[in-house]
Structures are given as C-alpha cells and as structure tokens.
Design goal:
It is built from 5 helices and 25 strands. With 322 residues, the protein is of the alpha+beta class.
Length: 322
Amino acid sequence: MNRFVIYFKNFLRRTAHPALIVFLLISFVLWYINKLSHDYTATVTVPVSIENNPNSALGVIENSQEVECLIEGAGYRLLMYKLFPKRHRAAVDISRVELRPVASGDRNEVTIGSLYNALAAQITDVKVLSVLTPRFEIVASPVKSKRVPVLSRIRIEYDPRFMPVSPLVLIPDSLTVQSLDVLLDTLRGVYTVPRSFTEVHGSLSGKIPLSPIPDVLLPVDEVRYDIRVEEYTETDLTLPIEVRNYPDRLSPVIIPSEAVVRVNVRRSDYANASPEHIRLYINYGDRASNLDRRYKIRAETTEGIVVREIIPLYAELLFEKN
C-alpha cells in the first residue's frame, strides 16, 4: 500500500496537470454512484428463521438456515445484501409456510413455493424473483398445553418488630402454558423474576414480571403478589404436654409434663396467646425413629401465632399398664 501511495505521488509530480487526475477520480465515483441507483438482478444469501405461532399445531425447535435467493433491486440495496446478510434476516411465521413430513424423526420440509411466497411478502426493499435453495428443513414437534405452578423468587427480610401473618400468595398461582411436547415434559413451573424486599414493616402487594422461558408461550407476563405483615409481640407460656396416637391400654407418663413455649403473636391477636390456641404434644408414632425414649415436643397453633422456641425441646415418655 505504501509503495502504491509513493508511486501515485510521483505520478502526480510528473504529470503536467495533476488536477486532471483528481477530476477523473471524482468522475469515476459519481459514475459508480449513478450505476448503483439502477436496477440489477443478483443472487444473495438471506438468513431465514421460522418463528412459532401460538395458534399453530406445530412448534419449531431447529428453525434457522441460510437461503440462496435471486432478487432484483437497486444496485446499492443489492450491495447491502452482499456485504451485510445478517442485517437482512427474515423471520417467517410458521403459519405462512406449508410443511411436508420427512420420513425420519420429527423433521419437516418447508415447501419452496410457500417459502418463496412468505419471503416475497416480507422482503419489501427488493423484489424476490425465486428461491434457489432446493431444500429447507426444520425440526418441529406438536404444540401442547400444560398447567404449571407459578413459583416465587421473592426474598423478604422483615423488620425485627414485624412478622408475616400469612404465606406469600401469587395470583394466579398457576398458568396454562403452551410449548412443544418435548419441552413441556421437563417444565415444572414458571418463576417470577428475582426481587428482594428488606426491612419490611407492613403488608406487601403489587405486580411482578414472570421470567420468560425460551420457546414457551405464557398467557400473561406478570402476576400479583400479596403477603400480610403485622407488628408482633413476644410472650412466654408454660403449657402442659399431651401424648397423641398411643395405645388405649397404656397410661402415658411424660417427663417433664410441661414446657415453656416462646411465641410471636401479632398485636391484633394478642388475646389468642393462650392454652386454647396453643397446644404442645408429642407423637407416639415417632418411636420408630427414636434411639431412646426421648420424643420431640411439637406445637400446634392458630393463625397469627409463630412458635420461636420450646424449652425443653424433648420429653421422655413412659407408660403404665391400666
């Protein structure tokens, strides 16, 4: 390149009229630009992808291929197709093409006639004269529906003085999604986008987007969330321990017979922090997993009461014959 520049400079020095060379170059550029405005016919490569349609009985898995097309148009447009083929990608709706099953597996052949019609309707800056690629195959599978749960990725950190008094609710809590049969087999649910709330000191509600899943059609793109949060108070109660599921012919003896239960109670339900609403028990059915006679003490409460601690956590169970 440097040698050419040096030669060109020496040529201009030896030329009696270097301005003549400059005008010749300008004339060539103008001529070329004028030629690019004329219509020509050329063969170009067009990347084509077949896109899914929710109303189609088939869905596409492998759907991209480069297609050779004979097109007619202005020279500068043909030049753009030649230089930047990816910028001219054509996305064809599967409902606009005809499919012909191939003998092996789930492969389907797109008929060239229907592909030509779809490309001719979609590509408007040039005229598609014909599709030269002899074969265009895709991998497709039947589209089916499946009811799946909506799964939360909401993380909540509460102010130390507040507590949830109901579980997080998503509305709706399940969706009927559509996708290829082979993809629905492994789909276990639809997740919300991750979201965090910190120092929460009141009830939360709002809308949250769903995380998109490739090749899966969702009926909605967001759901509502709701959780009730109230200020709580802490209290300790000493309650008796009962035994459940033991044989009638035996009389149980629990050591100790009482335990201290520490609970958080929402202020609006403080009156419920009583033995009528909190019961401590051990389950005789746990004996199969016990290595000794110690049974874990469990608590049963009404809504709005959260057990924080039971002291002691285990009790010993003995029996006397009636």
